[in-house]
Amino acid sequence: MGVADHDLPPPPGDLAGLYDAYSPAVYRLALRLCRNPSAAEDLVQDVFLRYWRQERYDPSRGPVLAYLLLLTRSMAINRLNQQRNRWQVLQRWSTQLLGGHQRSPHDWAELGDLAERMRAALAQIHANQRQVLELAYYEGMSQTGIAEHLQIPLGTVKTRSRQGLLALRRQLQDFAADSSAPLLTPPSLADRHEPR
User: Fold this and answer.
1) pLDDT of 44 over the 80 cut
2) Residue 123 CB neighbours (<10 A)
3) What is the reported pLDDT for 70?
4) Per-residue pLDDT tens over the stretch 80-109
5) What is the pLDDT of residues 162-180, one digit of tens each?
6) Could you give the domains of the chain?
7) CA distances in angstroms from 160 to 107, 128, 165, listed in the order given
8) CB-hemisphere CA count at 13 Å for 183?
């Protein structure tokens, strides 16, 4: 057998060997997609971590490098979408909060009160619902991205987000009734749903 041992690809269970053999190719693709060396390095680490944790690679479907590159592409696209979603959420909230006019001290006090009530309301809803809402609003993740991140069905994410939003509405109803300004409505989670 003329092939040396070091010419054979590492076995799928040898994470260190796979990293040594394939991380340069994964990094090149990550850098091309992310266009940022630091983000590409983080992505490479996360790709190998997900590979190790999920153990979904099936050798009968192709070489491990193809699987790692597909995983890299998928995770890079998700991150780019999250960044875009964060920017869109920030744009929507700043437009709602700041509008086109100068806020009075009373307006700022009211917004501060709303923020405090929002924190208290979030603390009172079920932890699973709060987790989904926080990932959507603070991390800018889509419902599909949340399902993948938490490793739960998409339907469960939708149910938790809906129930969480309804619970928040009930918690904040008195604020809307007491306030002269309408209750600020956050961007819809449905806006972030990706087609299957």
Assistant:
1) yes
2) 10
3) 93
4) 888 777 777 666 666 655 555 566 787 777
5) 998 888 888 877 665 655 4
6) 10-100 (1.10.1740.10), 102-196 (1.10.10.10)
7) 32, 7, 8
8) 16
Length of the chain: 196
b/e 157-187 (16+ beta carbons within 10 angstroms → b): bbebbebbbebbeebbeebeeeeeeeeeeeb
Report residue 62 as tokens.
């192709």
CB 50 within 8 A of CB 71: yes
> What type of residue is 137?
Y
Which DSSP symbol is given to 79? H
Q: Using the structure block, give the residue that is written with the tokens 């050798």.
A: 59
**Could you report the per-residue pLDDT of 115-149, keeping only the tens digit for each?**
788 788 888 899 999 999 888 877 778 888 899 98
CB 57 within 8 A of CB 67: yes
Query: DSSP readout, 96-121?
Result: HHHTTSPPPHHHHHHHHHHHHHHHHH
